[in-house]
């Protein structure tokens, strides 16, 4: 059984078990927040219509360098807001590029106060998924 001090956050998606709600480490919690931002469409949340980048919608757009740059700027803005207090904003980096029917998003950052570096790669489109 994990120590309580190792887990401070509710896991997303929310899961209930015999011992209560599932929890996540801080690093996992931030990764889960990033996934929420990426895969939530703008205006999908009633009380937070500005939340979300809607990257799934991008699979229907021309996979060009112009799309990559627009997506990169949108993600930096969305993630900076959503991760305020969790991630050192000076370390947040987003790289977007595409190949054929896949958009590759790489997000790098350091957790605020502890400086732990994290890097996540998310593939959107054909063969999409995520890796840490």
Strand order of the largest sheet: 5-6-7-8
The CATH architecture: Roll
Structural class: alpha+beta
Topology, number of strands? 8
CATH class: Alpha Beta
Count of separate structural domains: 1
Tell me what the structure shows.
By secondary structure, the protein is an alpha+beta fold. The chain has helices at 26-39, 65-82, and strands spanning 9-10, 16-17, 20-21, 23-24, 93-99, 102-110, 117-125, 129-131. The chain has a single domain, classed as Nuclear Transport Factor 2, Chain: A, CATH 3.10.450. The protein is built from 2 helices and 8 strands; from the N terminus they run E-E-E-E-H-H-E-E-E-E. Strand 5 (93-99) and strand 6 form a beta hairpin.
Primary descriptors:
27% strand, two-stranded antiparallel sheet, single chain, Nuclear Transport Factor 2, Chain: A, 132 residues, four-stranded antiparallel beta sheet
List the helices and strands and how they pair.
Elements: E1 9-10, E2 16-17, E3 20-21, E4 23-24, H1 26-39, H2 65-82, E5 93-99, E6 102-110, E7 117-125, E8 129-131
Antiparallel strand pairs: 1-4, 2-3, 5-6, 6-7, 7-8
Helix pairs in contact: 1-2
TL;DR of this structure?
This protein is an alpha+beta fold and 132 residues long.
């Amino acid at each position: 059984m994990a120590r309580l001090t190792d887990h401070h956050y509710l896991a997303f998606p929310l899961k209930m078990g015999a011992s209560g709600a599932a929890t996540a480490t801080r690093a996992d919690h931030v990764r889960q927040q990033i996934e929420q931002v990426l895969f939530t469409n703008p205006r999908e949340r009633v009380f937070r219509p500005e939340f979300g980048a809607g990257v799934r919608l991008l699979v229907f757009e021309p996979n060009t360098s112009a799309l990559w740059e627009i997506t990169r700027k949108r993600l930096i803005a969305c993630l900076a807001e959503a991760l305020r207090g969790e991630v050192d904003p000076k370390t947040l980096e987003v790289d977007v590029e595409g190949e054929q029917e896949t958009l590759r998003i790489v997000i790098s950052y350091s957790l605020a106060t502890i400086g732990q570096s994290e890097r996540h790669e998310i593939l959107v489109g054909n063969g999409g998924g995520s890796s840490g």
